[in-house]
Amino acid sequence: MAGFLPKSGAESTGYRGLVGPLLLPTWVMVGVFLVIPVALMAIYSFLTKEFRGGVIWDFTLAAYDQFFFNRGLFGDEPPSIEWTYIAIFWRSVWQAGVATLLCLAVGFPTAWFIATRPAAQRGVWLFLVTVPYWVNLLIRTVSLKFLLRDNGPLNGSLMSLGLIDGPLPLVNTDLAVQLGLFYSYLPFMVLPIYAAVERYNFALSEAAADLYASRWVTLREIVLPVVRPGIVAGCILVFVPSLGAFLAPDLLGGAKTFMIGSLIDEQFKGSQGNWPFGAAVSMILMTLVMIVLILYARAQAKAERRS
Amino acid sequence: MKGVRHYPGFLAMTIGCLVVLYAPLIVVTVYSFNGSTSITQWGGFSWRWYADVFTGPEAPRFAAAAWNSLTIAVLAATAATAIATAAAVAMVRGGRFRGKSATFALINLPLMVPEIVTAVATLIFFSAIGLTTGYLTILIAHVTFCIPFAYLPIAARLEGIESSYEQAARDLYATRAQAFRLILLPLMAPGIISGFLLAFIISLDDFIITNFVKGAGMETLPTAIFGSVKQGIKPNIMAISTMMLAVSVLFVTLSYFINRSGQKTRA
To answer: What is the ipTM of this complex?
Structure first.
């Protein structure tokens, strides 16, 4: 999502005629190995499942029907709404939402603090915040699990300090998954907010202060509306990957914290799998994500037109 | 006036943020040097779990996984960097052309599709065309999702290079190939190196997509670690984790300094 559309206007450096050949590898790689697969996945979601994994080429709505409707054990009862999968989606949205709010609560002060350092120091602070992101996500999640375990270092030190009597049950809870997602994507929140605060004109805050606005009133009434695009971008960058996350819910959560990622994963494992259903769940997840991204792009285009 | 920039508690939050980010990593690093077999008790400093990784019963499995991870990361990052460099030259130096915004969307598509969806789609594709999942399918998938990560720093760097250098070279009768090789490529080098390093780390990092398209019996380090962790976190896993952590930190630090020196030469 991060990126920019290059400005045109680089003149006669002689690459105009080479555009096709230069872009061909990109078109082929992404086209053949991502666009076509996604299209194929859409088709697979309308096929009939085969019991050993894989599909039979008979078109049916069975996968979507299974997602939304309950027709009883033998499929002959009148359909009622099936809540199992909707509940899993809702839980994923909830978990991703809480993780996003956690990231915002910690990320905003951090981004603000870094952006208000002298220019020479900012790079180092940003570097410190981004390094953990480049450490393998699996390793980070495992490390967090190790830290939060019942007889792990966190519970151990809390108990030896006498703050708690028995270990706090942290792993396999909603909180652990939220912490895991928060930990996975926190830098995504800090960076866009930092970029917005860095461009913020502090004369606005000074004007507000001169007019006797308190710090926090200034923050709410002046700063937040100005840096909002950065906050929204950060929230999307955290929310979207959290929604389809697999590692944090799988390693830190238990059976009760089942999320979309695990639901999809399960459909492609061994003979228990159901490929068309897995494809359908993926389609629904992707649709959800695309809706979020389109709404965001629209809001941004509108904001740009206004300014 | 410094006052309006200062909010009480924000420094504490920043420090809290860094503690949260680093505490788990530091704890695992420390415990990887634990001499005790129990992961709970501290049994003094020791290298035994590092020795275990290289000579213990699981050593061949980890060695094979590490070799796969490393070779896939090198090959995928190299291919993605080459593809992304060509794309960046076309996008930044190619002027206006039809389908430019569509191409831009295509380059960034791997970042927009949720990873697990890419994993499912790729598995379905390979199964539909009858390609057996294994080393090759992992490599293809990795090249594809590494492209945007390689592209971003390269394009950002190229954006900052004025075309007057190449134009001067062309005016002095350099061919297009000479102008590219002798002028543009050296100027782009910091961006290309950063792009390569990021793609390399991203490839090394990937679990979900690899796990879907790896096939039976094929492991990369993340999938091997995941398999082990499912039975509980053992000390040798912490030793491997610490080594991978060190590699990541080394690469990011390199990338950071290369970028910084790049910015200095530009200024």
So the answer is: 0.87
